[in-house]
Structures are given as structure tokens and as C-alpha cells.
Amino acid sequence: MAGAGSPPVTRRLKAALLDLRSIAPPDRVAPIDRQLELLAAATRDALGDERDVEVALIPDTQGIGPAARP
After folding, report:
1. Which of 2, 5, 19, 39 is the residue whose CA sits 20 to 30 A from 46?
2. Any idea what the Cα angle at residue 22 is, between residues 17 and 56, rounded to 5°?
3. How far, in Å, CA of 2 to CA of 17, rounded?
């Protein structure tokens, strides 16, 4: 919740959770999905504007976002 209003934090966290989900045993996938849902909800609450939320939830291991890429 502390970083929900910071797009670099949400991008990196989502990327980490998705990476973890890709190698998690089947019994751990549901808890990871729950964390992804909580991240999305906290980001929506913190940012409000759906356009900002959409950009903040693009997974990115560096957290810099798609606009910063060449």
C-alpha cells in the first residue's frame, strides 16, 4: 500500500509478482493472483484516474515505464 501511488514501484512490483507466478508451484498461484488484485486495487485507490492506473500497472522490471524505452 505504501508504494501504490508511485508508478515506478507498482510497475516493478507487478513485474516481480508476474515473474514469481511464472515459476510458482500450482498451490502458490492463487495467493500470488490475490496479491496482484490487491496491487491493482491499491493503485486505483491511490491514483484515481484510470489512465494513470493503466500506465502504473504496466509490468516493468526497471520501473521506468514504456515511454522511457527507445
Report:
1. 19
2. 35
3. 17
pLDDT in tens, 3-58: 888 899 999 999 999 999 999 999 999 999 999 999 999 999 999 889 999 999 99
On whether the pTM is more than 0.90, the answer is no
User: Which of the 8 DSSP states describes residue 2?
Assistant: T
Domain ranges of the chain: 7-61
Helices (H) and strands (E) in the chain, counts: 3, 0
Check residue 33 and report its DSSP letter.
H
The C-alpha cell of 27 is what?
A: 498451490
DSSP letter for 12, please.
Answer: H
